[in-house]
Amino acid sequence: xxxxxxxxxxxxxxxxxxxxxxxxxxxxxxxxxxxxxxxxxxxxxxxxxxxxxxxxxxxxxxxxxxxxxxxxxxxxxxxxxxxxxxxxxxxxxxxxxxxxxxxxxxxxxxxxxxxxxxxxxxxxxxxxxxxxxxxxxxxxxxxxxxxxxxxxxxxxxxxxxxxxxxxxxxxxxxxxxxxxxxxxxxxxxxxxxxxxxxxxxxxxxxxxxxxxxxxxxxxxxxxxxxxxxxxxxxxxxxxxxxxxxxxxxxxxxxxxxxxxxxxxxxxxxxxxxxxxxxxxxxxxxxxxxxxxxxxxxxxxxxxxxxxxxxxxxxxxxxxxxxxxxxxxxxxxxxxxxxxxxxxxxxxxxxxxxxxxxxxxxx
Amino acid sequence: xxxxxxxxxxxxxxxxxxxxxxxxxxxxxxxxxxxxxxxxxxxxxxxxxxxxxxxxxxxxxxxxxxxxxxxxxxxxxxxxxxxxxxxxxxxxxxxxxxxxxxxxxxxxxxxxxxxxxxxxxxxxxxxxxxxxxxxxxxxxxxxxxxxxxxxxxxxxxxxxxxxxxxxxxxxxxxxxxxxxxxxxxxxxxxxxxxxxxxxxxxxxxxxxxxxxxxxxxxxxxxxxxxxxxxxxxxxxxxxxxxxxxxxxxxxxxxxxxxxxxxxxxxxxxxxxxxxxxxxxxxxxxxxxxxxxxx
Lengths: 362, 294
Ligand SMILES: Nc1ncnc2c1ncn2[C@@H]1O[C@H](COP(=O)(O)OP(=O)(O)OP(=O)(O)O)[C@@H](O)[C@H]1O
Ligand SMILES: [Mg+2]
Prior knowledge:
The complex is a heterodimer of chains A (362) and B (294).
Chain A (H helix, E strand, L loop, with lengths): L3 E9 L5 E10 L4 E5 L6 H9 L6 E6 L2 E2 L10 E4 L11 H11 L4 H14 L15 H14 L4 E5 L7 H18 L2 E6 L2 H7 L2 E6 L2 E6 L1 H6 L4 H6 L6 E3 L1 H6 L14 E4 L5 E2 H8 L4 E13 L3 E8 L2 E8 L9 E7 L4 E3 L5 E2 L11
Parallel strand pairs in A: 3-8, 3-9, 6-7, 7-8
Antiparallel strand pairs in A: 1-2, 1-4, 4-5, 9-10, 11-12, 12-18, 13-17, 14-15, 14-17, 15-16, 18-19
Helix pairs in contact in A: 2-3, 2-4, 3-4
Chain B lengths: L11 H27 L2 E3 L6 E3 L3 H8 L1 H34 L4 H9 L6 H12 L5 H8 L10 H29 L3 H9 L4 H12 L1 H17 L2 H7 L11 H11 L3 H27 L6
Antiparallel strand pairs in B: 1-2
The structure holds adenosine-5'-triphosphate and magnesium ion.
């Protein structure tokens, strides 16, 4: 068990591509930290630098208080689960899991005990003699997990370990990984570009964008108070609606007294939008803004319905509970509680809303 | 689905096959059948009387100490010619895999020897190691080594092995480079994280995963050592000194075309034919069903 601390870590690939642009991050002991961001933002690069598979251009990485910059992967006491699992095709499941222990000179009976124990935890007991190619995707994934677990490392690293599984299995494994990580209490860093995976797994959520950290925080804090428009549109599905005050005013929203001085963008989560009746009950004393949207499509998905609509040239998504009783075309008056609005300045940074006491005074 | 050309004609396909079949018949089946026939006959020194001796020629060949000696020579020569290029090519391929700058250039250079004809390759080595004019021979003698492949059978053997192996390195190299590239990088990274250093990674991951390639090359090299090295032996040692470098194939030629013992030579070539068939069978059996991982 260990904390992982990154200090102004940068990575410049040969050829001048700066993939990671100065990252500071501390992952507390035993926490599961999820790095999330769009493709190419440098998540894998960062993870591979922690693993020692990629040289660190500048900055330091500490594991358990020890700077590991110059250490080989073997000396860092980490275990990694790869996206394609990277199981050794010529070894049995047992040997795959035992490989790391053998390399460290663990005595044979102890290897046997640890592998059997991990196999039991992952329900791989009956598969120990098989070769990886004789396993299903989900089973391979478990073996990859098992290989990491038996080593009892200081840190687990995961690089999109579930992205090759189908949706249902992914959901199952996600829960399992969460449970395992809690039980073992091993500090973990988990890379994904799936925001749902990120939200559900993370103790610490790190949102990255083009080599930088956009925001660090507990998943729900990040969700409720996105620090930038990038985070706002990346976390949450469907993403937050981002509109300009002009758009809103043009369709009848009254923003006087609500708009902070620097705000040029107003963000509203799809679930914070709704019919006027529904939202006025929710908003209570905070009040509502209301405006008209032009309906494009209504998508019922069962428990809820997504209404895709437009406000002038901007698109808006409204998340309605259950079977939505709204027309399929034409205009609809929607409302959002005032205290659920998010504001961002010209740089996309979050701006605090106007305090309640100061509202409507001009 | 691949679309196939359909010939409306019934005869045309056969007509198109005729040249190929004719060539095979004239240059393969006919001589092969002649060899089979010849191997059961014995001719007097003047070529006037031919008698049928059944398996007599075979009995004679197999009990001939010279033939047994030639079998030994062939085994030594073939084993060395098959294994040495594999070992050298593997080392070079592993190193080439690490080269980043000028990778293509390096690889191209490595492939050139393959384009050299066997006899020419033999001549090159002959010149280099010729006791009177050879550069390397001169250096060896200066170093105090008694180098004379014209008299010393072991040195002659060494020379043809070097010439034969040198030519085969390129081919082996190509396959090992391809084999190395086919190993997913993430496997080596996983092994590195699993605590294996470079040497350990090579022996526990890379080497086992190259096994199919190695086996394929072993078969190909053996076939090469048996049947494609005649030019080298002929140019460099002509089987000598004594019979020190007389392989089975060379002995067929020597006994048949130089010593004119047609029956014995034919019997030897029939034995060789059996070996070719066996090797080809192995080759097809294993090469056709290449081992696929993951
Ligand atoms: N070996 C390399 N050489 C040069 N550039 C690289 C190399 N590896 C990655 N990059 C670049 O660095 C950037 C970050 O890559 P990285 O693999 O870390 O992205 P990622 O966030 O993991 O994306 P994904 O979600 O698609 O896996 C990309 O722009 C990529 O093109
Ligand atoms: Mg990646």
